[in-house]
Amino acid sequence: MSLHVRDVETRFRTASGEIHAVNGVSFDVGDGELVGIVGESGSGKSVTINTILGLIRAPNTISRGVATFGGRDLIAMRSGALRKIRGAEIGFIAQNPFGALNPVLRLSRQFENVVRAHRRIDRKTIRRQALDMLGHVGIHQPERVLDGYAHELSGGMAQRVVIALALMLDPTLVVADEPTTALDVTVQKQILDLIAALVRERQRSMLIITHDLGVVANYCDRVVVMYCGRVMEDGPVREVFRRPYHPYALALLRSVPRAGQSLETLGGRLPKLNAEPVGCLFRDRCPQSKDICASVTPPLREVSPGRKVACHLDVETEVPPLVAG
Ligand SMILES: Nc1ncnc2c1ncn2[C@@H]1O[C@H](COP(=O)(O)OP(=O)(O)OP(=O)(O)O)[C@@H](O)[C@H]1O
Ligand code: SF4
Ligand SMILES: [Mg+2]
């Protein structure tokens, strides 16, 4: 099922003023599509997803916008109704697997709770399905794992269990927020291969948040590049990686030539988000900024079919290619 996100805004009121974390984000995840969201730390990736999924628990949070999933607006929905969708229709894989598992309940109970929150199925059937799913995510002794507790698991095993829980009800959309950053590189690859294969095999959709451009290159159909709570560029991975149009996307791709490297190698810092943002937020780091960039916010516009960019330049002619010459 597809997800259509439009003009999502999230602000936090804190003792030291307002933080404009997400400033009008729009993107789509089509049926059967794998979409990656990339951006530096603090660019608003998690807040965007958490706003859409109703997972922000901070008081004094102001959210706006629309996120349509199967014809329903998730942002306008009451938390009870949204909880029914989350888990059953949308599977969420959080960054920290141990945070997603209950330390004092046997894992078998956690599988039962997840299923029973949504469906009337007897224990025996749930157990059979859980064992099956644990086998699917590469757990060798599923009986032992199911009858044990989270603390008995390694990080990689715990993440596999969280993936099994998220996929237990066969959601049509899987959302994963940095699902593997806590794991070593080999386990990371195994787990991403696994999630992507399960999603593709079942023709489901997926939204994956990552710092790692290699992950996007290997697993995604489309990429959404975020900066300071805004979308800078959105398009097919192959096209964007061959010829980025936004100066920020260009800087990212130039600074991160290989898979597995983090985005923090880029010079300069993100501007503070403590005021209503005006103009292009990348202007302090942009080698091509002009007067208009400080006063007018560039809208996210379609520059060619399927490709959107938020920049005042005529990007096809004025932004240099990835490889000079
Ligand atoms: N509860 C909160 N209260 C105040 N500010 C917050 C809160 N949660 C997030 N922020 C701020 O919102 C901004 C966006 O944060 P977010 O966690 O979405 O970034 P991110 O892109 O997911 O970064 P990372 O890659 O490090 O996970 C940051 O400046 C962060 O400090
Ligand atoms: S709008 Fe201006 S500052 Fe922003 S990326 Fe384009 S040229 Fe650079
Ligand atoms: Mg995050």
How do you describe this structure in short?
This protein has helices at 45-52, 79-88, 97-100, 107-116, 123-136, 142-146, 155-167, 185-201, 213-219, 237-242, 247-255, 292-295, 315-318; strands at residues 3-14, 17-29, 34-38, 61-69, 72-73, 90-93, 173-177, 205-210, 222-227, 230-236, 301-304, 307-309.
Structure description:
The chain is α/β, with parallel strands linked by helices and 325 residues long. It folds into two domains: 3-89 and 171-318, Rossmann fold (3-Layer(aba) Sandwich); 98-170, no CATH class. The protein contains 13 helices and twelve strands. An eight-stranded mixed β-sheet has the order 6-7-8-3-9-10-12-11, with helices on both faces. Helix 4 (107-116) packs across helix 5 (123-136). The longest helix is centred in the middle third of the chain and has 17 residues, at 185-201. Adenosine-5'-triphosphate is lined by residues 12, 14, 19, 21, 39, 41-47, 58, 211, 273.
